[in-house]
Amino acid sequence: MQALETVSQNLSHGGVQGVYKHHSAAVGTDMVFSVFVPAHAQGAKMPVVWYLSGLTCTHANVTEKGEFRALCAELGLIFVAPDTSPRGGGVADDADAAYDFGLGAGFYVDATQAPFAANYKMWSYVTQELPDLVGQNFPADMDRQSIMGHSMGGHGALTAGLTFPDRYKAVSAFSPIVAPSQVPWGQKALTGYLGDDILTWRKHDAIALIEDGARVADILVDQGDADNFLAEQLKPQLLVEACEEAGIPLTLRLQPGYDHSYYFISSFMADHLQWHAERLQHRIK
Amino acid sequence: MQALETVSQNLSHGGVQGVYKHHSAAVGTDMVFSVFVPAHAQGAKMPVVWYLSGLTCTHANVTEKGEFRALCAELGLIFVAPDTSPRGGGVADDADAAYDFGLGAGFYVDATQAPFAANYKMWSYVTQELPDLVGQNFPADMDRQSIMGHSMGGHGALTAGLTFPDRYKAVSAFSPIVAPSQVPWGQKALTGYLGDDILTWRKHDAIALIEDGARVADILVDQGDADNFLAEQLKPQLLVEACEEAGIPLTLRLQPGYDHSYYFISSFMADHLQWHAERLQHRIK
Known about the structure:
Oligomer: homodimer
Radius of gyration of chain A: 18 Å
Number of helices of chain A: 9
Helix content of chain A: 25-40%
GO molecular function, one term (chains A, B): S-formylglutathione hydrolase activity
Family (chains A, B): Belongs to the esterase D family.
Distance between the termini of chain A: 25 Å
Largest interface: A-B, 23 and 23 residues
Order of helices and strands of chain A: EEEEHHEHEHEHHEHHEH
Organism (chains A, B): Sphingobium xenophagum
Structural class of chain A: alpha/beta
Protein name (chains A, B): S-formylglutathione hydrolase
């Protein structure tokens, strides 16, 4: 069992909101993540909802502002929030310390390009190492996982969900970057982490994955129509078209007046958790 | 109508979470506060719940972590969160910049002692100036107000509620300082703001107010039993005894395992809002 350091634990909504630190073999640094575990009978295992965060965030943003605990407690869902990049001494950052690349902007890929290849292995971290760690250390039923995310984390949730459709029983996103290959945030990140060969990008672009045959049972997306990033970076219409073409049932809800913030996310968090719970339900023991 | 600057407005849970700034005549500086206004029909007025924050906090803590919006939206309650002290150039602070006196620690009194008397008029600000401003600028039914708070803000809510029992239709608190005259936090603050004459403290001590004849219809208090400040600073038993003596129905819930944080507050926020709504209800139009 890998060593896990408890940073903090607070009782909340009858469960335990924890923050934990561990040395990650995948990224080569210490990593911090949060886990909410509802009250449960000794030995009982609960399904796990993964939440991937957006640019500039750590585990803390959704942990503090996500308003997920009340319903996770009611539905019996473990909620895990990883960080968005490796951090700490020696980890490369964007040359200009921009918010959209490097620290806080790992884009959920395994970098192949120097100097980022040394630590930016967020794909392996989030889809492999951290699930193993969670399975070992929490009352988590790893046969019942689902995944959601926001913005860059919506991109991560969609690509992880499309890549492992058997593992993640539900996939949803808040204002996701649906086509990183086609928008400035994604082009900068994928070039920096994966290089110029755009064929290598296709595994990390939800639209390209769908074009290349990836399928999931269905997808829920909420998107504010007052989101400053909607037209240039998010382009949900591309996901609508790809899902139509592929026959993937997509529920895309354009939410009038909502922006890109946690005020938006928290407004629809309960809907997403219900969506996840329904799809995890058939295996709830 | 007093001038109000909009710092930010975000749509959330169908309503508007705003942050506003204004020049306060009471404290002599600019002050920032937050207001959540649920969706409502044009011209409709809603009851107002006041939330007074604890030491070190600004409006932002409860605004981000309080988990009040979903239920305020459902119940049609405006939720107002003021700052905890004057701030800005020239405002006096604790000599050692301690967290429990001066900035972020106004204790909801009108200071009479130099140098604090110049700006620390938080009692007038919170019970007079800001209500006037809210009544003028928001769809607020000022005949239906209620008040709650946390820790130092629980003290503020209890003393305001006891002082103006006709104005505040409900009074509740999370881990309140019930007897500032009898505990270190309160003794430091009341001495610093009001001076050594402890008779002047009695208007700002819930226990003393009750002893001196103040009455409210009932009080709800939630208190974590794993709260680090419970034994030395909070002493809820003193409120139990004073309420018993005075015949004030007190619902004090000792919550096992809960601490002093917003993880605790957010767990029971819905119960408090329901309590307030029931007591505001009979006048809901």
